[in-house]
Request: fold
Amino acid sequence: MEEGVGVRLLFDAVYYGENEGGSIQISALNTVEYNHQYFTPNSATEGFGTITYEYVPAAADAGNNFSFWCYSTGGTSDFLVDNFRYETFTPAVKPPKPGPVAGGSVIDGGTTPYAWYRADVGVDTWIGDETRVAWWQDQSGNSRHVEAMGDPQLTNNGIDGKPAITLDGDGDYLLGTQSEWGSPPARHGLCRLATDG
Reply:
């Protein structure tokens, strides 16, 4: 295994005989860790379809050999595996936390806000994935940057086609540190600019 290079396995899995439930477990075994991923059927009759398993070796795995295996779990269904493929990929990397940025008021002559976030400025995305948000920089100059958890996306579907940060409600949120935001927590508001008409 090579550090920083991921392994992707792809294959087709279909039921053999009667569907009696269960899922497929695929694991990577090496000297450091197991990496279990589970796949459930996407069709009661056709089975699992094409399965994609991705594994990114840890730094300590570099130079070691490893093996994969898969089996049904949680049921007694048998399945056939066909069209097995193997490829490598370079995984996306989260950049480090950004440093201070020059800030100021939202409008000329106005008061500098506690924190200020703009989707068109100061959005850091993952290296190798230009739409997945990693950090959202505070434009007030107070360095209250927030870290994107999950996989919020930088899109162009905001008002008038402007950039927007999209959270899908499935594990996506923005995280700030207590040392930067203060304790006890203050209440903060989020505004959305609307256009006439």
